[in-house]
Amino acid sequence: MSTNKLDISLTHELKALKQEGRVKAPERIIEKYILPKDKFGPRYKLVGNDNEFIRLNSNSYLSLSNHSKLADAADTATCEFGVGPGAVRFIDGTFIHHDRLEKRIAAFVDKPAAKIFNSAYTSNCGLALSISNNKTHWIGDQLNHNSIIRAMRISNIPSINKGIFNHNDMTDLKRCLDQVSPDIERVIVIFDGIFSMRGDYAPINEINKICKAYDSKFKDGVITVVDDSHGIGAYGNTGRGTSDFCNASPDIIIGTFGKAFGVNGGFIAASNTIVESVRQKADTYIYTNPLSVADCAAAVTAIDICDSDEGLKLLKNLKERTAQFRQGLEKLGKESIPGPHPVVPLMIRDTKKTHDLVKFLFDQGVLVVGLTFPVVPKGDETIRFQINACHTFADIEYVIELLNNFK
């Protein structure tokens, strides 16, 4: 037996992806981290390239992944317990560091309990498997992340029990709630906190108010869920995410340790009963090894930093650099989507010009993400810039000057 015939078919499928404009470029390999120097922040070296690059395509909003305290915590935990858990959680694969992280993140987002996963993606899928039954109806925002879309698909409910409302359109959310069948027992309204391609946010306070008006219509109520992976740690006055910014919290919070916290893993934070249901029913939790103790110890340390004066200083610089970049774009007459989040989209609205600008920036030592058709509709071509706390005033001025020089 061989895979020759399968390889031929898959080659045709890959060619089709390329013709559709959906094929991904070869992955660049980072080979060196260069410490901040003079007035500039850190730079990176790529294999096969002599440039030193500033990353404006990183989710590490607080720039904690290179923090010495995180590295020390990971080293200490690894030396004590080893590099891997050796089993899934319910077969004695739970270590003290898993328990500490669950308690710490629950307290940070002000929920009674939390359960940690390998990623926010598996957290979303695990939640869907845990709280859905044949009398459940799911409603999601039109621009929800792929992990939420996937979660709704695997929730084992018929397609008629799903609704999609136009992005951040509260009138359309009401339409979806009005269309729920009267025999439904529970409704789940799920949305991103920060929409990662746009940098705008879900108005949780408004969503909660609308859902509360419908709550009594259903036996198990209307449950609100936010995936705040791009918000937690990087947004709001205390870095607690979109709930902090909106001064309103949903019933369930999903998040990640892999962005602002600079580590790995995801979590679900909710009531004790919901979290226990997740532990008992979520396939993506039950049948896979957990995070390493190194990840857990580093993540607890990251949360502690976020919850300290040092964290507030990082958050302050992040806000200032984001404002500096947005103001720079405005002075250049460039179009963006308003908002205070460090995801800053630059609307190019032309595929060729988007590709040209991404290449120009790359040649000048700047890494960004370009989004073109068919990933986005024609006319919505965008370059996504992501500001991090390690970026300096000089870094941002350098990038603004490059944008000014591009013709």
SSE map:
Blueprint lengths: L3 H16 L10 E5 L8 E4 L7 E2 L12 H14 L7 H5 L2 H13 L4 E5 L2 H12 L4 E6 L4 H8 L8 E4 L4 H9 L7 E7 L11 H11 L6 E7 L14 H5 L5 E5 L9 E5 L1 H10 L1 H4 L6 H14 L2 H23 L11 E5 L3 H13 L2 E2 L1 E3 L10 E5 L6 H13 L2
Parallel strand pairs: 3-12, 5-6, 5-7, 7-8, 8-9
Antiparallel strand pairs: 1-2, 4-10, 9-10, 11-14, 13-14
What does it look like?
- The chain has 407 residues and is α/β, with parallel strands linked by helices.
- The protein has two domains: 128 residues, Alpha-Beta Complex (Aspartate Aminotransferase, domain 1), CATH 3.90.1150; 239 residues, Aspartate Aminotransferase, domain 2 (3-Layer(aba) Sandwich).
- It is built from 15 helices and 14 strands.
- The strands form four sheets. The chain has a seven-stranded mixed β-sheet with strand order 4-10-9-8-7-5-6, with helices on both faces. Strands 11-14-13 form a three-stranded antiparallel β-sheet, with helices on one face.
- A hairpin with an 8-residue loop joins strand 1 and strand 2.
